[in-house]
Amino acid sequence: MRSLPNKGTGAFAAADKKSQATFRTEYKLPYAIIGFNGIVNDKAAEKSKMTEEDLQLLLKGIWEGTKNLISRSKFGQRPLLLLAVTFSDSYYLGGMRQKLKLVSEMNEEAIRSVNDYSVDVTGLFESLKKVSDKIESLYVVVADELKLVNNGETVKFASGVLSSVDSLLA
Fold this sequence. Notes:
about 170 residues, single chain, four-stranded mixed β-sheet, about 30% strand
């Protein structure tokens, strides 16, 4: 993705009745999809006495905080998919975000909205199925406009707290 330069000026108050001005160049992406992996360390959660309510507040904060993070560089930012997997016995499945693939008939640099692509969840779904016996629950929130594909077929993810990988596909 090529960034677009945006030139401007800025003035900053340096002290009482004084100001300083400067030229600036910002580099912006016209559209970006940003993902991240995270983990709640069960040992640290135990030591800090983290509750299920704390976890739900954290997940809500990730989803709602993304929607409400508005600045000059993040105008129009919104969450599209949140998947939290609770494993039993301290099991860990890394790189879940990397198991997702962006699918579009458009050149990557022409993408400007969620309507220009779909997300292939086949790799993620297969990985979760392989370790389904180690999964206690899944927490899922999906933006209505996000298009998901599994094995070439359009699918929908169920939302909410799910008890199994099989219940993930609505």
